[in-house]
Amino acid sequence: MSLIEIFSSVQGEGVYTGASTLFIRFGECDLRCRWCDTPHSWRRTSECRVQTVRGESGFRVLENPVAGAEVVAAADALDVVSHRFVSLTGGEPLLQPEAVLALAKGFRGRGPRIYLETHGLLTDALARIVGSIDVVAMDWKLASDVVRSSGAHAPAEGDFHAEHEEFLRIARKAPEVMVKMVLTPGSEDSEIDEMTRRIARVDREIPVIVQPVTPHGPVREGPSARRVLEIATRLERTLRNVRVVPQTHKLYGAP
Questions:
Q1: Are 29 and 146 in contact (CB under 8 A)?
Q2: pLDDT tens-digit profile of 106-127?
Q3: Alpha-carbon span 193 to 231, nearest angstrom
Q4: With contact defined as beta carbons under 8 Å apart, do 192 and 181 qualify?
Q5: CA angle at residue 177 from 175 to 180, to 5 degrees?
């Protein structure tokens, strides 16, 4: 499998913000988000960095592709069993579904729950592995700030609503699913309303996280407090489990 990094931290986003998490970051992504804070994960790399001691900043290097046994050994060295979650993140992990499945099966039953962080578009890949996942944390991408890459995996241009709805229906087969939407000053009411309509059509009870953008790269500022509260209220007219949760790990400098 092609990885970027393996490290211990706490979850900085979504329903389980603050929970101890062992992160395994996959390399390669087929989207380009204007606000992405991990652009180094857009492409596969020759090396994967591995934290050597939990809570410290030292790393060693493994060559890609990394064998599953090496990943498990690296996780064991970081005391994986004492974490609440193992997060398979990216990049986009579902571009490597067999690797995701192997790791999910390898870590299940050892204590931590298996937490998949995904852009929520690769439905066929999810269908193959969802039975081994405990929590699916999917993004709902808004075309005002996200485009598809020009790589081999890129389908036709356009918005992502239909693909996300199909993905969400499969994701509900996991014990838990949540939807995260990054809100920027460029996010449009019409696309947010369409997202809301489609989520409600699947299940109004699914947790939906409104995540005010953390300024990064070409995104210089976040939405105003008034705009964040306005959108939360707008969603709550239809959906029953809406929360506003910023990227908390950015507040204390965690990766």
A1: no
A2: 998 899 999 999 999 999 999 9
A3: 10
A4: yes
A5: 165
Lookup: tokens for 211: 């995540």
Query: pLDDT (tens digit, 9 = 90+) per residue, 161-192?
Result: 999 999 999 999 999 999 999 999 999 999 99
CA atoms of 210 and 149, how far apart (whole Å): 24
Buried b (16+ CB within 10 A) or exposed e, 94-110: bbbbebbbbbbebbeee
Q: Return the pLDDT at 153.
A: 45
Domain ranges for the chain? 3-250
Q: What is the largest CA-CA distance in the chain?
A: 50
Q: Which two tokens stand for residue 33?
A: 């988000």
In CATH, what class is 3-250?
alpha beta
pLDDT at 16: 97
